[in-house]
Design brief:
Distance between the termini of chain A: 36 Å
Order of helices and strands of chain B: HHHHEHEHHHHHHH
Strand content of chain B: under 5%
Chains: A alpha/beta, B mainly alpha, C mainly alpha
Structural class of chain A: alpha/beta
Oligomer: heterotrimer
Helix content of chain B: over 70%
Number of strands of chain B: 2
Largest sheet of chain A: 6 strands, mixed
Strand order of the largest sheet of chain B: 1-2
Radius of gyration of chain A: 24 Å
Number of strands of chain A: 22
Strand order of the largest sheet of chain A: 6-7-8-3-9-10
Structural class of chain B: mainly alpha
Shape of chain A: globular
Radius of gyration of chain B: 20 Å
Number of helices of chain A: 18
Distance between the termini of chain B: 64 Å
Shape of chain B: globular
Chain lengths: 512, 309, 357
């Protein structure tokens, strides 16, 4: 769209921005233009360079080349402070709040005296903002007592408390229920309407059209197109985003469910600091099926995985695998008993970055023969198995002794999946198995999950990506507040599932 | 009998003073995420510097300032290694301790190698608070002390107010709890941690000077005798709260005072067990408090800012 | 290899800094260092003395290294050393009639057991109560040293003696001298055997792997079914046993009794040694030897070159800072978040027989 020559310069213009890291060019001569008064969506899949761009705009990263103009003037965003001085506020995907400090202290953190005023005034302003969001949060509360959704609101309020001119939202609705997301959009529009601008990063098409005025599609570090959202349609945007036609949903042969492999009956765990307690959660996974768990993050998914693995004590309930009671066993015994896991946070819980491939494989294999005999390690065997896994899962790694840190995220995940499948578990618990992966690795992971299904095993899939859950699952359990609030099938409408996700079961006859 | 008790209480306060000074400094450092185990070295350096300052200028105050400067300088070095270079803070602390032991010994021997007898200074005398100092019982115990004693017991209150009631204090704590968050709000994490380390070092230096200018009037090699480690324990025992630290310091001081008296009195309880008591108590405190520990979450974790260094 | 070169460079830089300091106060650094070197390694007698000092230092450093590799930042080696010395002395004194072939290893084993128990206590406190090990082991140090002090003052003091030491242990418990003209005993073999054992433990056993995995990423270890508790307990027992062994050697090979001050801060000096040596056995032993030589040579340096004794501590402090600082400067460019000298894990290379894809 040609710009009106008589109009004032755009609020933000980025020209030929380039930033690379070892081995990858994150932003490749990227151009972007954001106008005052608009809500600008940035669409792209993983690795497209969205986060890097946002971090540069937020002053947290220095670009290698390129120019940034603010209201027509060239600027250098040398630090978060410099960005903040211009009025750029970032709301991060992973909230940056200080748990032990109060909401008020968090919101006013780092503000000079003139910006925050006297303590009483600051508190009053904060209460007003909190009221706008319709929350019951008390400014004096410690942030660590807030729920995930509430913390995100505080994050946004933090940005609004400063005189924000450009609000950058990074995947803001990841942990929000649909009605909370709508609330967020309303506030975002209000911010834009005052002559400011909002950029938001997303991979959700519905948000692009619901929230954005214009959308920029990023792919492989470049801007492959900027459009008015009213003039484009999803298919075209997706094609630009992935660079090819989206394959149609994989057709699965319907299967008759087999015997019950994994059964969780009325699981209850204690609620902790920020952790939801499981509340009489029951589900079952049968042979030859994939059970998907849909739900807004923070409703007990992590706790469920931990409970199944014996990492979280059960207050009540029972878990059986192949009719064996797991409830009192430790993790090692549970893994040996036929339960496999792909942990949700790969870096934190699945791999050891300082170790090499063999050691990481050993980690997953455990102290069993033939790799460990009588407490002694057989590195030759371990190396052989590693090579096997590398080949079978097409992991791009020259040698088994290479440090695992050299692999990209997708290939690390391949190794993780490979090592757990090597033990041939009866039931695989896969938490966020394709999060953050490149397209090829994600496809391979999904393929192998379906392979487990075909082989008559069971898969429990937990994913924040509802599309993935819909695509892979035979049955879908919706988790809310620590229990399974309802079941669905791949053909159930997204709206119905969405309602379940916020704890609302639709009444008959009502349109959601 | 009453004189014995008063004597004991006075001694307890005096023995607690350097511990409390150093512990308050350490608390401030730790609240911003800096685990400074080099307190011992900074105290020792402060002891020597305080002594030298008083010796060469004749003014005790000059000695104290010199001690604080020396402690701060050592802390600055610690900061360079631990904050800028991001080395492991425990290791750097231990290295600095060795440096301090060696450095103070070397310095002292070089300066006074040819001295005929041990160099001495005139120690600061106690400052009696007018009126209050004359109250029977309470007066001698609380109001007839050297200046540093008053400072040591007032400082924790100031620290409390600073940390929990001021804006800068909130930023200070944020740096120790979640430096990423603080950084994203434009708070200069590194600078603040340097400041925290230096503050801790200065107070540790002052605490060390207590030994050589108030308690005694000479400098002896390794005269702090592990007090720095006790100061670190006090912060933990006190669960990172100024009030707790005062209590903990008094317990450690009290135990030392008690065992000295028992040594003379010759009762049945072996004095080693009395000295052992605070350490056991610290362990017990640690074992029972860990669930609600107030330790800063990012204590001793170097802060890495994404992409820019 | 690169880190080794860097380490040597850092040590050289530290020595240079020390030389500058000495020159600034009028001491000739060349003479000083020459006397330091000769004092430590110049004559066979000096070498023997260095090796004598090296024994307990090396074992203590190994103890620290084992702990640190599992992310158990123990500074409790000092206390475990004392308990080990106590255990050995008591065991030796309790069974004077046994022949050397039995008594020597038995007393040594008693020392190791005593050290292991004290180490386990620290581990148990961490596992059961979450007690931070840095402060926990520090507290246990004080308690151990004070306890031994108490015993030496009274209950186990040699009767009729004014000095605070135990009676001499029976000759059957003493480790024989290597040569008659030096105090060095055959205990010198122990650090090397221990170093090898630690190497095997860390690279070839599941227990060693598990401990290092837990040390590197406790959460991933737990998800893999590794019990953090068991890892920590095993490591603290092993670490304590090594420290106790150091104490045993000092009693059986050097002083032949338990006396005050027998520890000579080995437990604390061992920590920087383990770290300079990158917590792997070979590096640790070499660094321990270096520091031992410096300690022994310090007396010579004071005597012949008029360098005050504390200078050695100063040099040691400089060495630690330079090595540690140098490593971080090097690794800063790699953007690693973990200090390189704490976790350079490297299992044995794949033997040539294994086919490579």
């Amino acid at each position: 769209m040609p710009a009106d020559p008589a109009a004032p310069p755009p609020l933000l213009r980025v020209e030929a921005l380039t930033k690379s890291f070892p081995g990858v060019i994150a932003n490749d001569r990227l151009n972007l233009e954001v106008r005052a008064g608009e809500v600008h969506a940035v669409l792209g899949e993983n690795g497209a360079g969205k986060s890097t761009l946002m971090n540069i705009l937020g002053g947290r990263l220095a670009p290698d080349a390129g120019e940034i103009q603010w209201e027509g003037r060239k600027v250098s965003l040398a630090s978060p402070r410099a960005a903040a001085a211009l009025g750029i506020a970032m709301v991060h995907q992973h909230y940056l709040l200080v748990p032990r400090l109060s909401v008020l202290e968090n919101v006013t953190l780092g503000l000079p005296r003139f910006a925050r005023g006297r303590p009483a005034d600051a508190e009053r302003r904060l209460r007003a903002l909190l009221g706008q969001f319709e929350t019951k949060i008390d400014p004096r509360q410690a942030v660590e007592t807030l729920s995930v959704g509430e913390r995100q609101k505080v994050e946004i309020i933090k940005a609004l408390f400063r005189q924000v001119r450009l609000l950058i939202l990074d995947e803001p609705t990841a942990a929000l229920a649909p009605h909370e997301a709508r609330q967020l959009f309303r506030i975002g529009r209000a911010v834009a309407a005052q002559g400011n601008a909002v950029i938001f990063i997303t991979h959700r098409m519905d948000e692009v059209h619901a929230f954005g005025d214009r959308v920029t599609v990023l792919r492989a570090g470049r801007n492959v197109g900027t459009f008015a959202t009213a003039e484009t349609e999803p298919r075209a945007l997706v094609r630009l985003m992935v660079g090819r036609e989206l394959a149609p949903r994989s057709v699965r042969a319907p299967r008759a469910p087999g015997a019950v492999l994994l059964e969780a009956v009325e699981l209850a765990t204690a609620a902790g600091e920020g952790a939801v307690g499981l509340d009489r959660l029951s589900l079952e996974v049968r042979a030859g099926e994939i059970v998907g768990i849909a739900g807004v993050d923070g409703n007990g998914q992590d706790e469920l995985v931990e409970a199944l693995l014996g990492l979280r004590r059960l207050r009540a309930g029972r878990i059986t695998l192949n009719s064996q009671d797991l409830s009192s066993l430790d993790t090692a015994a549970i893994l040996a008993g036929g339960l496999g896991v792909v942990p949700g946070d790969r870096h934190a819980a699945a791999i050891i970055e300082d170790f090499d491939l063999r050691q990481n494989v050993l980690l997953g294999l455990g102290p069993t023969p033939p790799w460990v005999r009588g407490g002694w390690l057989d590195w030759r065997r371990i190396g052989q198995t590693t090579t096997e896994i590398v080949q079978r899962f097409q992991v791009r790694a020259p040698r088994p002794e290479d440090p695992i840190a050299r692999l990209s995220g997708g290939h690390q995940q391949r190794l993780v999946l490979g090592r757990v499948l090597h033990r041939e578990p009866r039931v695989l618990v896969a938490a966020q198995p394709t999060r953050g992966l490149d397209v090829g690795s994600a496809a391979l992971v999904r393929e192998r999950l379906l392979g487990m299904r075909a082989a008559g095993r069971g898969v429990l899939l937990l994913s924040m990506d509802l599309d993935e859950v819909l695509e892979l699952s035979d049955r879908i359990a919706v988790i809310f507040a620590g229990r399974i609030i309802g079941w669905a099938t791949p053909t159930t409408s997204r709206t119905e599932i969405g309602l379940l996700m916020t704890g609302i079961a639709p009444r008959r006859g009502e349109t959601p | 009998m009453s004189t014995v008790v008063i004597g004991f209480l006075v001694a307890a306060l005096r023995l607690a003073t350097p511990l409390l000074l150093a512990a308050t400094g350490e608390l401030l450092a730790e609240e911003s995420g800096v685990l400074n185990l080099g307190v011992e070295g900074m105290m020792l350096t402060g002891a020597l510097s305080g002594f030298l300052g008083a010796y060469y200028t004749g003014s005790i105050l000059a000695g104290w300032l010199a001690a604080m400067a020396a402690g701060a300088a050592l802390a600055l070095t610690f900061g360079f290694f631990a904050i800028t270079l991001r080395c492991h803070q425990v290791i750097v602390s231990l290295g600095l301790n060795l440096l301090a032991v060696g450095g103070t010994g070397f310095c002292y021997r070089t300066l006074f190698a040819l001295a005929a007898h041990t160099p001495e200074i005139t120690p600061a005398g106690p400052v009696v608070v007018p009126l209050l100092g004359r109250i029977p019982w309470v007066g001698p115990v609380l109001f007839r002390h050297d200046v540093l004693v008053y400072v040591a017991f007032l400082l924790p209150a100031l620290a409390w107010y600073f940390l929990f009631r001021t804006h800068l204090g909130a930023a200070w704590r944020a740096v120790g709890e979640n430096p990423q968050a603080a950084d994203s709000q434009g708070i200069p994490v590194r600078r603040m941690r340097y400041l925290a380390a230096v503050t801790g070092g200065a107070l540790a230096g002052l605490a060390g000077a207590y030994y050589s200018t108030v308690d005694l009037n000479v400098f002896l090699e390794e005269m702090t005798g592990g007090a720095g480690w006790i100061a670190v324990s006090i912060v933990i025992f006190g669960n990172w709260r100024p009030a707790g630290i005062v209590a903990a310091a008094l317990i450690f001081g009290g135990a030392e005072a008690l065992q000295l008296r028992l040594q003379v009195a010759g009762t049945g309880v072996p004095r080693e067990f009395i000295v052992m008591l605070p350490y056991l108590l610290t362990l017990v405190a640690l074992a029972s408090k860990f669930r609600s520990s107030n330790s800063p979450r990012q204590l001793s974790v170097p802060y890495v800012r994404l992409g820019r260094d | 290899m690169r880190t080794l070169g860097l380490t040597l460079l850092s040590l050289a830089a530290a020595l240079a800094a020390g030389a500058g300091l000495m020159a600034a106060v009028g001491i000739d650094p060349v003479t000083a260092y020459r006397e330091l070197g000769l004092g430590g390694l110049g004559t066979p007698r000096n070498v023997a003395e260095t090796l004598l000092r090296f024994c307990p230092l090396a074992l203590c450093a190994l103890a620290v290294a084992v702990g640190f590799r599992a992310s158990f930042f123990t500074i409790g080696v000092e206390g475990q050393f004392y308990f080990g010395a106590l255990g050995t002395a008591l065991a030796a004194l309790a069974f004077p009639g046994l022949p050397p072939l039995i008594l020597i290893p038995a007393a040594m084993a008693a020392g190791m057991a005593a050290g292991a128990v004290w180490g386990l206590l620290a581990g148990w406190l961490k596992v059961r109560f979450g007690v931070n090990e840095v402060i926990g082991t520090l507290m246990l140090n004080y308690i151990a040293v004070l306890f031994v002090q108490y015993l030496l003052r009274g209950p186990i003091r040699a009767p009729g003696s004014e000095v605070q030491f135990t009676p001499l242990i029976p000759a059957a418990a003493m480790l024989p001298r290597v040569v008659p003209w030096a105090r060095l005993s055959w205990g010198i073999a122990v650090p090397f055997l221990a170093g090898y054992a630690v190497q095997v433990f860390q690279r070839r056993t599941w227990a060693g792997f598990r401990a290092q995995a837990f040390g590197a990423n406790p959460l991933a270890a737990r998800y893999a079914g590794i019990s953090g508790s068991r890892s920590v307990l095993v490591v603290t027992a092993v670490s304590g046993a090594l420290a106790g062994l150091a104490g045993a050697l000092v009693v059986q090979g050097e002083f032949h009794r338990l006396q005050a001050g027998i520890g000579a801060d080995y437990g604390y000096t061992a920590i920087p040694i383990a770290l300079v040596g990158q917590t792997n056995p070979a590096g640790t032993l070499v660094t321990a030897f270096l520091f031992a030589a410096m300690d022994v040579g310090a007396t010579m340096m004071q005597l012949k070159a008029a360098v005050p004794l504390p200078m050695v501590r100063l040099l040691e402090g400089l060495m630690i800072l330079f090595v540690v600082g140098g490593r971080m400067v090097l690794s800063a460019g790699l953007g690693r978040r973990v200090a390189a000298h704490l976790r350079p894990v490297s299992p044995p290379a794949v033997p040539p027989a294994a086919p490579q894809p």
